[in-house]
Amino acid sequence: MVRNVSDIKKFSNKTYPQAPQMSDFPIVKVAPSSNKEHGRTVLKRSLRPLLTISQLASAAPFHIKALDPDSNYGRVKIFAIGTMQLLWGAMLLFAGFVAVSYKKQWRLQQSNMPFFTYILYNVDLYLGLANSLMIFVVCQRQRGGYDEIVTTMEKLSADQSSVEKDSTRLRNMFSKLLLIAVVHLVLLGTFEFIHTGELTKLSTTLAAQFVPNVVQVFSLMQYAYVLMFIYLHYKAINGALVTMAEVFKSDLTSCSNSLNALKQQHHQLHLLAFRVNELYGMLIVMSAISVLVGTSITCLEVYQFTKNTELFREWGIHAVLGVLWGGLYIGRIVLILYPNHLVENERDFTGLLLQNFPSMEDEQYMIELTVFSRLILHQKGSFLVCGLTYLNLNLMAEMLGALTTYLVILIQFDQSTQY
């Protein structure tokens, strides 16, 4: 790797143009510390709808200090609020375990149910409760992690000139996503009631499967929010680099300062993505397993009901239920993988943009450009979660292949019980 202009000339016969001495270039500067309060206000306004509904579901801790540092919440009050949240979560889990026990009596106690199918049903039910328990406990224990992530986001918001536009876009995006999720869940509950026809069975399904899925969805939406925040900031950095490459009319000292500021922001965004994937790593892995098992069971149930049902109305209800449950499972995995896909592509695109910058006879400028390019080179690749799998869209293709295999096996077991 070259370190200065003399090293570059040694390996190239290219003639380097002199830099124009003009000062009409739009330099990107780091915002002063006085803007941190503005960044906090904008971030709080953008994050509030998602954070509030997540707190009500015990999927996020009440009172994140980084969002409200001037509040008079002491340790005792924070501990009391955290305890109440855990008690609310414990009540949801107790209702879930009771519902699972009741559901097993009328759904799983079939004399001809294959053993493998029986195991998958139990894994689906208990894994949802286990994931909810993990979310309730971890969100309280990792309160400091929430503060760390929010503080980094506030700093990056203060340093970004397009913070208002990006925050508004994030708020609108996740408000629409919350609305879609609520409508989807209402439709799911409605069709479950039409299918079961009994309030007891509906309550059992809601407590055993519906509530755990809701808790996981709201937790994963927080994860997706941070990644989309990173994606939009990467996009803003790339937009600034495009402008700098197209309108190269400034003195190189100012350009070097701008590259240094953008490099620092880019590095902070990468560290933030790494940190949030580290905090949510176990939930991501368990959610992926839960999605695979739940989707397999849903497809099997659709096959069983439609095969044994002659009436078109009942067949249609089973098919719609399968689509709604399948959409819920698919939505969870999309919340994990698609934001990571966007972040990875936009991060790597920065390296392509840096290639458009010309080489100049200015040591400081060449050092900044080389270090920035080296930084991008070391950041390439997808994020590895828990040392098990990479978070990219290839994982969805692998899960689809595994789902097809499991479904074929389940159908074969189901057919073997009929003979």
TrEMBL record:
It is a multi-pass membrane protein. InterPro entries: 7TM_chemorcpt. One of its GO terms (cellular component) is dendrite. One of its GO terms (biological process) is sensory perception of taste. It is found in: Cell membrane. Keywords: Cell membrane, Membrane, Receptor, Transducer, Transmembrane, Transmembrane helix. Pfam families: 7tm_7. The chain crosses the membrane at residues 78-99, 119-139, 177-194, 214-234, 279-303, 315-338, 383-413. Gustatory receptor which mediates acceptance or avoidance behavior, depending on its substrates. Belongs to the insect chemoreceptor superfamily. Gustatory receptor (GR) family. This is Gustatory receptor.
